[in-house]
């Protein structure tokens, strides 16, 4: 059984659904990987970096990292978010093991009704999430890292089926959304030969 350390915020933790419906639970249940869920609700990339510095990494076979959504919702400067992500990637790479980077999904207008952001901020935050996605794709290409593109997976599925939302609150996925995230992650892990079929 291979061990995968997963560091992130509420999107990694699996906020908004029962424990059995979280994407890391589903990924582990699919077999051959044990996911250590270090997702912390509300965490920023600055907080993730501080937590990473205190972690013992040698016991894991690979690492997954996803952050930035809260930075954007809190209007933290893009340069700070990128610097924290770059630092965390570099620290994980020192272990000489695979590093996977997650790309967080867009938010929906109904997120304002749940208090996650102001209604007039949704478009601007999504523009920043889109730019952040492109930066992550470029950074991972340069570093030769594989990505879990949850942004594309959820957005494409949401557009294809507008009658059934993949979100519970406009920010966090529903059970169907997390199932799609687990499927996306497993596909990448197999393609990169970390897992077998």
From TrEMBL:
Residues 6-180 form the SGNH hydrolase-type esterase domain. It comes from the Bacteria. InterPro entries: Ester_Hydrolysis_Enzymes, SGNH_hydro, SGNH_hydro_sf. Gene3D superfamilies: SGNH hydrolase. It holds the Pfam family Lipase_GDSL_2. This is Arylesterase.
């Amino acid at each position: 059984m291979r061990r995968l350390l997963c560091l992130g915020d509420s999107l990694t933790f699996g906020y908004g659904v029962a424990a059995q419906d979280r994407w890391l639970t589903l990924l582990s249940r699919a077999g051959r990987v044990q996911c250590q869920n270090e997702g912390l609700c509300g965490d920023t990339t600055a907080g993730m970096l501080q937590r990473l510095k205190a972690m013992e990494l040698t016991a894991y076979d690979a690492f997954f990292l996803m952050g930035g959504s809260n930075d954007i919702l809190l209007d933290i400067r893009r340069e700070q978010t990128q610097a924290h992500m770059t630092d965390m990637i570099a620290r994980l790479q020192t272990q000489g093991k695979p590093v996977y980077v997650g790309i967080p999904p867009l938010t929906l207008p109904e997120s304002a009704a749940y208090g996650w952001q102001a209604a007039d901020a949704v478009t601007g935050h999504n523009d920043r999430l889109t730019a952040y996605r492109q930066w992550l794709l470029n950074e991972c290409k340069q570093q030769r890292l594989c990505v879990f593109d949850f942004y594309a997976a959820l957005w494409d599925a949401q557009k294809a089926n507008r009658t059934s939302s993949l979100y519970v609150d406009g920010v966090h996925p529903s059970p169907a959304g997390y199932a799609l995230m687990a499927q996306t992650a497993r596909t990448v892990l197999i393609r990169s030969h970390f897992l077998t079929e």
